[in-house]
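Researcher: Here's a chain I'd like modeled. Treat it as a single chain, no partners, no ligands.
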Amino acid sequence: MQHSDKTTWDIDFLQDQRQTGSDNKYALIILNQDLSGGLLFKLWNATDWHCCADGGANRMHDALTKAGARLESFVPDLIKGDLDSIRPDVKAFYESLSVPVVQDPSQYATDLMKCIEAVEELEQAQGTKYKIILLGGLSGRLDQTIHTMSYLHKLRQSRKWIFAVTEDNVGWVLDSGEHEIKIDHNLLGQTCGLLPVGIESTLLSTSGLRWNLSEHESSFDGLVSTSNHLVPGHDVWIKTTKPIWWTVELR
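Model: Modeled as a single isolated chain. Structure tokens:
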């Protein structure tokens, strides 16, 4: 099936080796949630700039220690937040490596928002644009998950290239319109979802899924396409009249 005027999505940052010749620049924001060394290694090597959101520094430090990695090989470019979560020993360790540890006491912005603000300052200084990967944000406390989903929903037009990655899945916002999602079936599991979060309803059409939709209304009061399946060997096409969240499980 051919479609035009669509946004094409490629999650090449999940590949074991970074693609050569890519013009994409990625920023990694490590949130204060459980993480494994394996996923951290993969995303760290796929990204160009690294930031810990307050207690995310604890999570990175502890995951690297548990994995037996050399901590000095994973030095973030910045640690930022209100600093109510970072442990004193972790703060002192990274300060000894000359990592800027910036306290922003504002109670009107979360640590995630403060770190994205830091990315925007970096972009202004360098004159370039980064795609952002959040390590965490869709697991742990429900209120934090809802904040991630809400904030990325709000940012969808000013900076749509933000992905949230956990041990189990990757997700991001698809704004209204047509989307083609490149599927690497070696990286992704079969289960996916199209979630009408933050909207009254949307009309969905799809191809490349086991249970495709054709101008089907989706809402929290009606149908929500959860536990749908990717079709082996196929990419996914989605048309939506309102912004939705797309999630797919990782292998």
